[in-house]
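Notebook entry, cofactor series.
This is the third protein in the set we're modelling with a bound small molecule. For this one the ligand is zinc ion. I'm keeping the input format identical across the series so the outputs can be compared line by line later. Sequence and SMILES below, as received.
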Amino acid sequence: MLFKLYCPNCGNEYGINESIWKCSCGNYLNIKVEPDFSFDFKKVEMRSKCLWRYRELLPIEKDENIVSFNEGFTPIVKMRKTIFLKLDYMFPTGSFKDRGATVLVSKLKEIGVKSIVEDSSGNAGIAISAYSAAAKIKCSIYVPEIISEEKYMQLKIYGAKVVKIKGTREDVAKEALKEAEKTYYAGHNWNPFFIEGTKTIAYEIFEQIGVPDNIIVPIGGGSLILGIYKGFKELEFMGIIDKMPKLYGVQSDVCKPIYYGLLGKEPKDTIKGEVLAEGIAVNKPPRGKEIVKAVKETEGNVIIVNNDEIIQGILELGKMGIFAEITSGVVIPALKKADLEEDEITVAIITGNGLKTASKLANILSKYK
Ligand SMILES: [Zn+2]
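Returned structure with ligand:
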């Protein structure tokens, strides 16, 4: 399969192995495949239950460059009648971001990158640090100062240089971009190889339960919802499925740029109030317009939840035997608020492990009593 980097802004194309992370016009890049590509999905049935079972659909040329812990093919469980939870916290570093990291870091190894800088609310930086450690690539991770202690510790353990930045998620990205002038920028909200990894969640859901009617997914920088969109879109393009699921993104009421985007309003670039769902507090996602387009095109919506609802969501998940990180709590109130038909099949994605924000949660719950 032939993959190419292309710019959705000016149309420029680049070779898939070029060591660039943005277009000469300044826009982010995407990855496209030759127009006549096809893939027989039956091929994967006998392969090992990890996301590299979709090898031909991932833009890495040589197998020897793959950096992997045999991650992926996470369980999907029934919550009640037509509602399923995809347990995408069940990854080596405890979040779905390993999907993106395994493909991104494999490509970095393939093109000979030796050191990188990345900015993250936590989980993407953690995933990229772990895979970089495995690939012997040096990495600097810029994080917001509100990062949980557990996430900070996890970054340090993988050997990353960690830089805490005051201010918004946007401020963190700006500082990382300054360092990127000297080294390769692997920002997961910019780099298209990250989304090539997250798209595998769509293939997995398709194999596990077919095409659901709705998918409920937290939106921060958008790497998950865009991966889901791309994965299902490719299945549709290959003639394997004939309908797209409706994509329902969830944001918290303290930071909701995609909600504004959907209403056609200029995204507000401030964060108002206490940030509990730190994983989705991204005030200016670089691919914001693309996220809005994916939601609109699939006839989905953006659902807004508040901090109390998020905590209730975490407690409800706990009662089902699922310990999720605070951000993942957003999908439970969203399931109630989305206007879903009872007989429709719905999948909600649980994105991060509860152990990542355990001390923060302990603090919050102590105030609740
Ligand atoms: Zn361009």
